[in-house]
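Repro:
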Amino acid sequence: MLEIENLRGGYGQVEVLRGISMNIGEGEIVAVLGSNGAGKSTLNNTLSGIIPPIAGRISFDGKEITRARYTDIVAAGLIQVPEGRRVFPNLTVEENLELGSYLRGGVRRRQNIERVFAIFPRLKERIAQRAGTLSGGEQQMLAIGRGLMGEPRLLILDEPSLGLSPLLVEEMFALIKRLNEEGLTILLVEQNVGQSLEISGRAFVLENGAVVFSGTPDELLSNSDLKRAYLGI
């Protein structure tokens, strides 16, 4: 579904991504792991069209999107839930969700809101509450719900467990697994190595903007040098 070839990118003269190649098949959960500064969020934003690539090629569902506008990328069904939630604090829960279907999924907006409420009953209880007054866990639910409103074919989740309590982290990863079992393809970008590898079929490890490992979770966990050097476990 997603093919990345020799991708280079960054900010101005600062190159962060240094020749990344990877792929994601339909129906997979693929984990991208790495420490702070490894290039994970830069990769997400380049795939989403927020940062233009310096070189390389990105293909989504057989069509090249290397230099496509971010609006066209969302309309095609590649949707990112960004790190830090990025909800609209002065808008209500319902208004935040409605914005998620601005470019895609608008025809079934009402049905999709009900689906989000079925997944996150707490959001239904707070439908008229301003997003800025929600707890951190509730804001993360809202951010994911807003992403689901656009009917993604591939959902990028950037650090979905960041800042959550251990109990909510367990719930978050169970939710991600459930969404995948329902047919959603997921690119999971996380620092929570253990939980990510439990639910992923394949993993890529980034270091200094380059892929230093690609393979199955079992292959990664069996390599003690790699775990110690790049994952701190």
